[in-house]
Design brief:
Layout (H helix, E strand, L loop, with lengths): L42 E5 L2 E4 L10 H4 L1 E9 L9 E9 L5 E10 L5 E11 L4 E7 L5 E10 L2 E6 L2 E3 L2 E13 L2 E10 L5 E10 L2
Antiparallel strand pairs: 1-2, 3-4, 3-13, 4-5, 5-6, 6-7, 7-8, 8-9, 9-11, 10-11, 11-12, 12-13
């Protein structure tokens, strides 16, 4: 019999239900000169016992300073009791002196020849609790109040208190994704009369220079 070793290679396919287990392939060292892609927060091996740390994900400091200024936005979604549908515009955040409160003013135009709109409100930052309390007057006159949890620098998770519009009781839920110092997105959901939250739409915001 010839001397040697038999090497078996297997590939596991997600979702397959073959009912048979295959031996796992023995890890092999990459060819010389190969640049390895590290996992998030890991290192790239550059030689025996060496490693180059990967850069950390940029994170913005929570607080009113992040929002101060004027942002252009585009909102895409469906019409509802609190929104007329897709729209574009700008929103400005102005700090009240040295306080942790922002005055918020928004204006724009509903797409497809719709009317112009204006909205206003305030946002108060609580540094100790890492929360952002918001009070809003929407374009149709609806008053909305709620609190956003900003304990993670990557996102604000907001939910409003119940508010009455006509014969309906509504609650709004939003997730603000803090992408960079000049960009964030909003995913908005709506619950009617205590029912499940359903997606309303998405907004993309970019800060003016």
């Amino acid at each position: 019999m010839k001397r040697g070793a038999i090497v078996a290679a297997c590939m596991f396919i997600f979702g397959a239900t073959t009912g048979a287990q295959q031996p796992q392939q023995t890890p092999q060292a990459p060819p010389a000169g190969t640049v390895q892609t590290p996992p998030p927060g890991g290192t790239v091996a550059t030689g025996p016992g060496r490693g180059r740390p990967t850069p950390p994900q940029p994170q913005q400091k929570q607080g009113v300073e992040y929002f101060v200024g004027t942002w252009d936005f585009t909102w895409t979604g469906r019409e509802s009791a609190i929104t007329a549908g897709p729209r574009t515009g700008s929103v400005s955040f102005t700090r009240r002196g040295t306080s942790n409160t922002l005055d918020v003013r928004s204006e724009g135009k509903v797409e497809d020849g719709g009317a112009a709109f204006k909205e206003s409100g305030s946002a108060e930052w609580n540094e100790a609790e890492k929360t952002l309390a918001m009070n809003e007057t929407l374009a149709n006159g609806t008053q909305l109040a709620g609190t956003g949890n900003w304990s993670s620098p990557l996102a604000i998770r907001y939910e409003s208190q119940p508010t009455s519009v006509g014969k309906q009781t509504l609650k709004v839920r939003r997730t603000y994704q803090i992408i960079s110092a000049v960009s964030f997105t909003v995913a908005e959901e709506l619950s009617i009369d205590g029912g499940p939250f359903q997606r309303l739409g998405n907004g993309a915001y970019s800060k003016k220079p």
